[in-house]
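Memo to structure team: turn this sequence into structure tokens by end of day. - J.P.
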Amino acid sequence: MSDVSAAVSKFDQAPATPTQRAIAEQATFLRYFGTKEDAVLSAFDTHGERVASALSERPADEDDWTALRRALGTASEPYHQDPNGSLAMARLVRDTPALCARQLEKQHGWRPALARALAERDGSALPPTVGHWVRASAALDCLNVAVDHWSDSDGRLDLVALLDEAFAALAPG
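Reply from structure team:
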């Protein structure tokens, strides 16, 4: 069968009614995204890998907490590139329980990579310690608190300063 014949055949098999088209479109949509929440939050998919990579590249003589703070700067870049869009997204996620839960679930998935990067910074070939996991988790919570305060201020407050403040609140010493 030629490519043209195959295309014609597929066209002939296309759903004819609006209901059939809607079902086909939903099936196609769900092939790319498992849920509506995943579709909305897909922009965050690479954040965890980027932060872990940035953490691995931080200077070896930098303490873990400072390295985490600097690495999380990569997660705040989109907020500076598109503040209005980021503000709308932050509010949508915060105000929609299913999106908020899915975002937290995604961030929970970032923790292993961050904890491993911290362990590697210590020169350990062993699995990450509880301390590595706690620091990774606390850093992500600092990011979330900073974004929430930034969103509450309608984007008027400086997100970088808020992130610095959140990290300072938990800094050792």
